[in-house]
Design goal:
alpha+beta, GMP Synthetase, Chain A, domain 3, three-stranded mixed β-sheet, 3 strands
């Protein structure tokens, strides 16, 4: 499987996951920091939340893992919840900022 094609599929899946309090998907919110795919098609994703006290801290990372695991061809998957750098609204895409009224 082509790594770029796989990354595109992963991003498409991530764009279907929403923080229930914010009407923007987690990818456009800037909650996904990195997507790494090695030569054995093992995937590692670093993600964060809008704050450590986020009410979906227990459910959002498992939801990410569950949805990404539905993609055919992935050998192994690891989703890391990280806090550095700390998320802020500047990490959002232009589309997310527009939708939320920041532009």
């Amino acid at each position: 499987m082509d790594k770029q094609e796989l990354e595109d599929q992963i991003i498409t899946k991530l764009q279907t996951i929403f923080d229930p309090e914010i009407p923007v998907n987690i990818f456009e919110l800037g909650l996904i920091y990195t997507i790494r795919i090695d030569d054995d098609i093992n995937v590692e994703i670093d993600m964060t939340l809008t704050s450590p006290a986020c009410p979906v801290a227990e459910t959002l990372p498992p939801e990410v893992e569950m949805k990404i695991r539905t993609i055919q061809g992935i050998n192994d998957l690891k989703v890391n919840l990280v806090w550095s750098p700390q998320w802020d609204k500047d990490m959002m895409s232009e589309a997310a900022k527009l939708k939320l009224g920041f532009l």
